[in-house]
TrEMBL record:
This protein's UniProt keywords: DNA-binding, Sigma factor, Transcription, Transcription regulation
Pfam families reported in the protein's UniProt record: Sigma70_r2, Sigma70_r4
Highest classification ranks of the organism: Bacteria, Bacillati, Actinomycetota, Actinomycetes, Micrococcales
Name of the featured protein: Sigma-70 family RNA polymerase sigma factor
Ranges annotated as spanning the membrane: none
NCBIfam families assigned to the protein according to its UniProt record, in alphabetical order: sigma70-ECF (TIGR02937)
Species name: Sinomonas flava
Stored InterPro entries: RNA_pol_sigma-70-like, RNA_pol_sigma-70_dom, RNA_pol_sigma70_r2, RNA_pol_sigma70_r4, RNA_pol_sigma_r2, RNA_pol_sigma_r3/r4-like, WH-like_DNA-bd_sf
Similarity comment: family membership: Belongs to the sigma-70 factor family. ECF subfamily.
Keyword Transcription: yes
Residues in RNA polymerase sigma-70 region domain copies: 11-75, 109-158
Presence of keyword DNA-binding: yes
Length: 167
């Protein structure tokens, strides 16, 4: 199949920056760029018809390439000592890697929320503050905190769906 350079360039222009940010959280910058380029080529060759499902398909492809790279690296002899529990990829069975990848996905999705929605969601769901405590910390009424959390969760679900995260 001859490669349509304009189509590949358009895919890269429209999606590469977001995919690179997503991949960079799990692998280094150089590896992220290679993964994004490979994902763009794969998606261009095998993308679903239409553009509606393209973005989630791109994110799933990048995620699969990151997992493949991690598995392949696990089969190679280590040239450096594994990181400790605070630092990263050292746990057996890839559990730390999966946790890291989940965290990267969540951080990317949270970054898509408005600052007000993100602050309310983080206060209530991550810092485990009560609605009243979050309202005092954010300087807004309790009803506003509830409303922001409701709409933040809705937007977060939409962002995760767009990124191809399955529930």
């Amino acid at each position: 199949m001859p490669m349509d350079e304009d189509a590949v360039a358009a895919l890269y222009r429209d999606h590469a920056a977001a995919l690179r940010r997503f991949a960079r959280g799990a692998v280094g910058s150089e590896e992220a760029e290679e993964i994004v380029q490979e994902a763009i080529i794969r998606v261009w060759r095998h993308a679903p018809d239409g553009t509606q499902g393209l973005r989630p398909y791109l994110y799933r492809t990048v995620r699969n390439l990151i997992v493949d790279q991690h598995r392949l690296a696990g089969r190679r002899p280590r040239t450096v000592a594994p990181l400790d529990d605070e630092g990263g990829f050292a746990a057996a069975g890839g559990e730390r890697f999966d946790e890291l990848l989940d965290r990267v996905v969540m951080e990317e999705a949270l970054a898509r929320l408005t600052p007000d929605h993100r602050q309310a969601l983080v206060a209530v769901h991550y810092r485990r503050l009560s609605v009243a405590e979050a309202a005092r910390a954010l300087g807004v009424p309790a009803g506003t905190v509830k409303s922001r959390c409701f709409y933040a969760l809705k937007a977060l679900r939409a962002a995760l769906d767009e990124m191809g995260v399955e529930r």
